[in-house]
Amino acid sequence: MTPSGETPSADAGNEPLLCAERISRAYGERTVLRDVSLELERNQVLAVLGPNGAGKSTLFRILLLVEAPDAGRVLLDGRQVSTGHAEARRRIAGVFQRPWLFRGTALANVAYGLRARGMSRREAESVCAPVLDALGLTELADMPADALSGGEAQRVALARALVLRPEVLLLDEPTANLDVTAQRRFREDLEHLVRAHARAAIVVTHDAAEAFALADRVAVLENGAITQAGAPAELVGAPATSFIAAFTGAELLLDGLVEAVEGEDLLAVRVSAGALLRGRLAEGHEQPVVGARVHVAYRPEDVTLGPADREASTSAVNRIPVVVSSVVPTGGLVRVRLDGAAPLAALLTRGSADALGLTRGVPATAYLKAAALRVFPA
Fold first, then answer.
1. Is 184 left (phi over 0), alpha (psi -120 to 50) or beta?
2. Distance CA 354, CA 72 (A)
3. pLDDT tens for each residue of 9-60
4. Which residues make Cβ contacts (< 8 Å) with residue 90, sequence separation at least 6?
5. Tell me: domain 18-242, CATH 3.30.365.10, correct?
6. What is the pTM of this model?
7. What would the pLDDT profile of 314-328 be if each residue is shown by its tens digit?
8. What is the CATH number of domain 245-298?
């Protein structure tokens, strides 16, 4: 019940379905969350992305209404809810990173919430069947819970949440207990399952690939605070901090010094390895002065390689002589490490690498457009 005595409605106008407003939480002298605000819209999957220790699990518990914040509030359909709101908690389901299963079979665990709501055993098992099948659990339905592997237990816990068709589904590191092959397969199925069985979802993860694969929108949690939120393409194309750039797949060069300001956001930076590179100031930062220390970042897929003895036809202003130090296959692409006045990495197709004859010790020229090089204050 709300403080006014009303139960939050499932149709409360145009308010976000779930909203965190200025959430803060500390344990003793350690502040874990600072002024965190998030909005989850209906029919949306939101990922909270951050490294270990960023405060993700604490935020997960607060949004799940099993832990209270020190400051701030959680809103469901625009109305404040808390750990004491039984009806609100029935509308939200969560799957913890290390799920706890009850005694009994896998099927009994999956059906538990339905049975607790008064559904007959036969009806509950009928509702569970398609979810068990979708998660590859049908053959494990009669297996005792304590005989399941970690990955199987994770899937059982997810099925237990999905059969309730929650309005908000919260997932804490949903693939953490799976091996690499199972992770890839599970991610392919997870988005469909989440959208089919929940009104909206929040995925808490340290894995950028998982966040980008599942979510419409990603919020980055860094040292207990949200530092950027947006569509995956926004975070990749215009990261707000050097941490986000690195976390979402960019390569960070060594620190550099601003040598010249050549336009509103165009900077010439002398990196520590010696090269003079031109790049764009990351959005949201004040323009640094000449001599200021900065970080520069780029994405390996934005690096183009050409023969050392022939100038390529390109508008890229950064043209760096390099020598191949390694060529490492990564699925359908190869990752080429390059030594020089600006040590770089490039991602190329195998065909392109073969055509250029890229092997260890081969000289080449690396091309990088200024727009692809992001400069962040140090």
1. alpha
2. 57
3. 444 457 899 999 999 999 999 999 999 999 999 999 999 999 999 999 999 9
4. none
5. no
6. 0.81
7. 889 999 999 999 999
8. 2.40.50
